[in-house]
Design brief:
- With 445 residues, this protein is α/β, with parallel strands linked by helices.
- The protein has two domains: 291 residues, UDP-N-acetylmuramoyl-L-alanine:D-glutamate ligase (3-Layer(aba) Sandwich); 129 residues, Alpha-Beta Complex (Protein-Tyrosine Phosphatase, Chain A).
- The chain contains 16 helices and 21 strands.
- The longest helix is centred in the middle third of the chain and has 20 residues.
Length: 445
């Protein structure tokens, strides 16, 4: 049965967000036409890449909330992220706060088909609908600038209808190869679809991926600004990190997010900030930069929610993110093992993700997420047994049950790790009664 409530209808689509993916910009343009093209009403930054794009978007928004403005007033900022962890509203923020459910509902009513048949539902994807709604919210809220995270790929992603002042491509590794290509170069070609003619692209990509982005930027007459060549980041001896940028040279910068990998994301955000400063005519000041770097929280990214027997939440859902997570946890909890609550989507490289996280495990608990996208615990068990036949392994009917199992009789020196899927992390936050939305301490927006 097709739900009548617009938000319930959207959520029914979201359960197959990527299995129902349909590359192309024709449908998003049709939706935006119905809304009188809100995407043309505000300036924007578009952030793509394999890992770190959401964190980079949040860090940049936190910086912009403090250092940018006009007539002595801070910019009114929009922020578009995906996926949501607990509530739909987490995807669309204005002035550092999620928009209301009712605002999403009212905008959705203008878009959804009058007859919600199965055929009509299959015509559109959830991501196309929510992207159009986000851009309408930004127009209606009169934002000066929106920072938007690309959903998947770049060239054919629904967000790519924007005309960004700067494009950021965080890094490239292999994901969604059925859509984006089999090699780093092919994937980079898709991601670089967000580079604009005569524009600017900031990137942390390396190797052949960086070469491909450079080639495409050259074809489009765009300037490429590259981490390691045009700007640099390093862990500071006194704590935090040092940033040597296009014109900024800052030492011992703080950062709210945990993990050395966030220093790279922060450097990309700072380079993007410098480009925007030139294009929007504002001057970043060190005091405000420090406040921006220390003024945000991102749920589900190396998030520690309990101290005594730590529970770590991290939505690492591809091999690159899992490798970084493993390295960070070995540094944070040297010599300690984890009771790992794990689930994964069937369109992910689960074998390679497990290769990174299994060495951390004293015990694995496979949580049943239900739905067609998620691998069933029995399927995961077969994969894990091929890699680690003797590992203590259990299955749980849902995430709350998995958390109860993980906490039961936990030994000194152990911690709980929830990973493998952002959807799993969202369910864990819900079970722990914790919020899933990004927090930005904005300046009187």
């Amino acid at each position: 049965m097709i739900p009548d409530d617009p938000v319930d209808f959207l959520l029914s689509l979201s359960r197959s967000e990527y299995l129902g993916m349909k590359p192309g910009l024709e449908r998003i343009r049709e939706l935006l036409e119905k809304l009188d093209h809100p995407e043309a009403a505000f300036n924007s930054v578009l952030i793509g890449g394999t890992n770190g794009k959401g964190s980079t978007a949040v860090i940049l928004a936190s910086l912009l909330a403090r250092v940018a403005g006009k007539d002595g007033k801070p910019l009114r900022l929009g922020l578009y992220l995906s996926p949501h962890l607990v509530n739909l509203e987490e995807r669309i923020l204005v002035g550092g706060k999620p928009v209301s459910r009712e605002q999403i509902r009212e905008t959705a009513r203008k878009l959804l088909p009058a007859e919600k048949t199965e055929a009509e539902r299959d015509r559109w994807t959830f991501f196309e609908f929510i992207t159009a709604i986000a851009f309408a919210c930004f127009r209606d809220e009169k934002v000066d600038l929106a920072v938007a995270e690309v959903g998947l790929g770049g060239r054919l992603d629904a967000t790519n209808v924007l005309s960004p002042l700067v494009s950021i491509i965080t890094n490239i590794s292999r994901e969604h190869t059925e859509w984006l290509g089999k090699t780093d170069r092919e994937i980079a070609r898709e991601k670089a679809g967000i580079v604009r003619e005569g524009g600017v692209v900031v990137t942390g990509a390396e190797g052949e991926a960086r070469e491909e982005i450079h080639r495409i930027a050259g074809q489009k007459g765009a300037k490429m600004i590259s981490l390691g060549r045009d700007f640099a980041v390093a862990r500071a001896k006194s704590g935090g990190f040092d940033y040597q940028g296009l014109s900024l040279d800052l030492k011992g910068l703080p950062l709210s997010g945990r993990g050395d990998y966030q220093f790279r994301n922060a450097a990309l955000a700072l380079a993007g900030l410098e480009v925007l400063a030139g294009r929007m005519n504002f001057q970043p000041r060190e005091k405000e930069i420090r406040a921006g770097l220390d003024g945000f929280t991102i749920p589900g990214r190396l998030q520690i929610v309990e101290k005594e027997a730590p529970i770590v939440l991290d939505g690492a859902h591809n091999p690159g993110a899992a490798r970084v997570l493993s390295e960070e946890l070995k540094s944070m909890f040297p010599g300690r093992k984890a009771r790992i609550i794990f689930a994964a989507m069937r369109d992910k490289e689960v074998d390679k993700i497990l290769e990174q996280v299994l060495p951390l495990a004293s015990r694995m608990i496979l949580a049943d997420l239900g739905g067609k996208r998620a691998l069933a615990p029995a399927e995961l068990e077969k994969i894990i047994r091929d890699k680690s036949a003797d590992l203590d392994l259990e299955k749980a009917d849902g995430v709350k049950a998995a958390l109860d199992l993980a906490r039961e009789g936990i030994r000194e020196g152990e911690y709980v790790l929830v990973t493998g899927s952002l959807y799993l992390v969202g369910e864990a936050l819900r079970a722990l009664e914790l919020p899933g939305h990004v927090s930005i301490e904005a300046n009187n927006q």
